[in-house]
Amino acid sequence: MDSISSPHAAPARSVLEGPDIARVLTRIAHEIVERAKGADDVVLLGIPTRGVFLARRLAAKLDAITGRSTQVGSLDITMYRDDLRLRPARTLGRTEIPADGVDGRLVVLVDDVLFSGRTIRAALDALGDIGRPRAVQLAVLVDRGHRELPIRADYVGKNLPTSLRETVRVQLDEEDGRDSVLLGVRETPAPGE
Amino acid sequence: MKRHLISAADLTRDDAVLILDTAEEMARVADRPIKKLPTLRGRTVVNLFFEDSTRTRISFEAAAKRLSADVINFSAKGSSVSKGESLKDTALTLEAMGADAVVIRHHDSGAPHRLATSGWIGGSVVNAGDGTHEHPTQALLDAFTMRRHLAGAPDGGPTRHGEPGDSSGRDLAGRRITVVGDILHSRVARSNVHLLTTLGAEVTLVAPPTLVPVGAGNWPCEISYDLDAVLPKSDAVMMLRVQRERMNAAFFPTEREYARRYGLDADRMARMPGHAIVMHPGPMNRGMEITAEVADSERCTAVEQVANGVSIRMAVLYLLLGGNEPAVGAPIARTEESK
């Protein structure tokens, strides 16, 4: 999840630009094919909002590598969050599961930033209500550390050691009009999401 | 969104679109093997029904259960109310049991408003129909059904009796909706006029003059006494039930005459535009306001409206209870169910 509490805190520094993000996704796509031995039964599920765009980009790269069409969808985790009662009711994202479902397949969850791990915990719960995959893996563009749950990523675009005072913000062309990962500083330290 | 849902007139266009969009996501849960979400775990929803209504009650019950809330059904028949308990004392009892939301159906107009503003209870109040006043969730599910059919095509136009489509983010701007029948006693008509107008639709009410309420001239809609003139320019025609139980005065000479002038039969349906749909909030009086042929045709969305009702009520309960609204008191005893 992108976590930015006050956008005007300090000038954000760009740590990944468009070409870097494209290279990183190409590498992750190759890693997925390698580990899944051909990626026949892979289903990519992006977590809204930006995880969905990353999943679609990864699917396009997998298509180019394998020559087959990769199953891609989205998995909204809003109603499985553990912090629903801390804020007003959130707007729901879209869940779109490919027609063949996820039973017996290798599901790769895709998100932009891995932080506390709570989003992925919620995603695993949501996935359990949809079907029973053969295995579940996790691909993230940025791993910024500070896990609060025993969760790790299988594919990491960039490990970004951060302090809790820093914010990591991913911008993607589809949503923000440009590709970049921005590292900023928030005014007051906040515990992980 | 406000804490309570009392009247469709309280909703802004953005509120209404948010509810419809949320319902669109909720509807997808119905297609899954596990039709349940953990979102309202540990919350209690009380269905407080002073008037018989099996379909609205089970719709709210299904919605609350799909969101994992605990549901307590309280019907006036055979309860302390039949022993003379007042609304206030019933409300205080529910408050003591820790109700996070009260879904109320009452034979008196204004009872939900009284419950919400009295300070008797701290939870959210959802109006499930009060007297001849309002029935906002019915209007929302009607608007949801219309939006899926009339704005569900990829270009935002009508689906022309194909599969109802995804119309997230859209409203009903410019759609012409005709509501036919017993406007006088219909809280469904009243709520629909408010909500559909908010969503940009043009509403026309058609009824015998005796069944149009005093003051309807000030509503944001047209009124007509001639169904045949209105049908060719309607995108959706909503037939209301003739409420025999409220017909304590002679509003029309005979049922046959009513059916001939204001009932929808196959001939009349053929005069509607090709993409137009027929709606009915149920329960239907076949042969009275709608013929069996029309009710069973693919253009009639009555059954779909029931399914959409669960999605809409899930959306309303989620938006009212899903966030950080203060939970009412401590979550104490949830034992006394009066099923």
TrEMBL record, chain A:
Which Enzyme Commission number(s) are listed?
A: 2.4.2.9
GO molecular function list: uracil phosphoribosyltransferase activity
Q: Which Pfam families match?
A: Pribosyltran
- Tell me the superkingdom of the source: Bacteria
Q: What does this protein do?
A: Regulates the transcription of the pyrimidine nucleotide (pyr) operon in response to exogenous pyrimidines. Also displays a weak uracil phosphoribosyltransferase activity which is not physiologically significant.
Cross-referenced HAMAP family: PyrR (MF_01219)
The name of this protein is Bifunctional protein PyrR
Organism of origin:
Streptomyces meridianus
UniProtKB/TrEMBL annotation, chain B:
Q: So what does this thing catalyse?
A: carbamoyl phosphate + L-aspartate = N-carbamoyl-L-aspartate + phosphate + H(+)
- The identity of this protein, by name, is Aspartate carbamoyltransferase
**Enzyme Commission (EC) number:** 2.1.3.2
| Aspartate/ornithine carbamoyltransferase Asp/Orn-binding domain mapped to chain residues | 174-320
Indicate the enzyme's highest-level EC class: transferase
Q: In which pathway does it act?
A: Pyrimidine metabolism; UMP biosynthesis via de novo pathway; (S)-dihydroorotate from bicarbonate: step 2/3
- In UniProt terms, what function does this protein have? Catalyzes the condensation of carbamoyl phosphate and aspartate to form carbamoyl aspartate and inorganic phosphate, the committed step in the de novo pyrimidine nucleotide biosynthesis pathway.
Pfam families per the record? OTCace (PF00185), OTCace_N (PF02729)
Concerning InterPro entries, the annotation shows: Asp/Orn_carbamoyltranf_P-bd, Asp/Orn_carbamoylTrfase, Asp/Orn_carbamoylTrfase_sf, Asp_carbamoyltransf, Asp_carbamoyltransf_Asp/Orn-bd
Q: Which NCBIfam families match?
A: asp_carb_tr, PRK00856.1
Q: Which residues cross the membrane?
A: none
Q: Which residues form the Aspartate/ornithine carbamoyltransferase carbamoyl-P binding domain?
A: 3-147
